[in-house]
Amino acid sequence: MAQLEAEQAADVALFAATGGSARSVTAELALELSVTERRAGADVALAQALTTRLPATFAAFRRGEIDAFKARMVFEPTIALSDEMAGRVDAIVATRLAGKNPSSLRAAVNRVVQKVDAEGYERRSRARRRDRNVCLIHQDETMSTLLCDLPVEQASAIYTSLDHQARKLRRGGEARTLDQLRADVLVDRLLNRTPGDSGIKPVVYLYVDLMTLAGLNEDPAELSGCGTVPAWLARALAADSNSVWRRIITEPDTGQVLSVGRTRYRPPAALADLVQARDRVCQHPGCHQYH
User: Fold this and answer.
1) What is the pTM of this model?
2) Mean pLDDT by 10 residues, the chain (291 residues)
3) Rounded to whole angstroms, how far apart are CA atoms 89 and 122?
4) Which of 7, 97, 106, 236 has the fewest beta carbons closer than 10 A?
5) How far is CA 53 from the centre of its chain?
6) Cα gap 285→249, rounded to integer Å
7) CA gap 61, 68 in Å, rounded
8) What distance in Å separates the CA atoms of residue 124 and residue 260, rounded to the nearest whole number?
């Protein structure tokens, strides 16, 4: 099936190159495949990238090692890259395709993109964070979907807090499912139905190496459950006065944990002073004040 999908992608790329304007190609392809023009346009973009910018991924696709969905997991994070950078990501990722599910593959590609295009990734990350929003989509059968695009550390903290309270209620004998409880706790909090509940302190784990923390390199950090985040964000979160540190020593080559510190402590004031002097504009999510 994957090999047939790859051949179809090759045909789509050929048709896009010879079939006229982009608009007419998309419209005709949508009609031929009985899909929306939006879906047809996405298929054209994927096919063109695979046959030009991502040859190693396309080769794996044609061999049947990955399917169209996984090929898209490689394609989408590279859209903003130059052809040269996309080629570098493609060559590296091609050695890491085996045995990965789509989500782990997407995370692996993002890690490589951050390495290959560190400045561009930081610029795009800051732009995306400015686009945070909330929207409401009404569904059928008296239900609606509330969507929030939020900075990763804020969304993770919110979800962790909801999950913590839901599990606490579940242990107390609640018959509702965890999904129902998380949804109900969210509604209660947003509508101020739970006085005194602000004492809940969500925990989000951030793993950042000492050299990055000190500003001596720009290696990405790891936000538990979410994947990698840029070094600048890791330092801003670590320097926050509400953060708590714990030392973990690992083996450099393998990452194996050698020692976990028992002591927890607040970030030293010197780090906050260094961040303020270096960045000048506050990098904490949602804050744009000058220090």
Assistant:
1) 0.71
2) 95 92 93 93 96 96 94 95 96 90 91 94 93 92 91 93 94 93 92 58 80 87 82 86 86 83 78 61 48 43
3) 17
4) 7
5) 22
6) 28
7) 7
8) 35
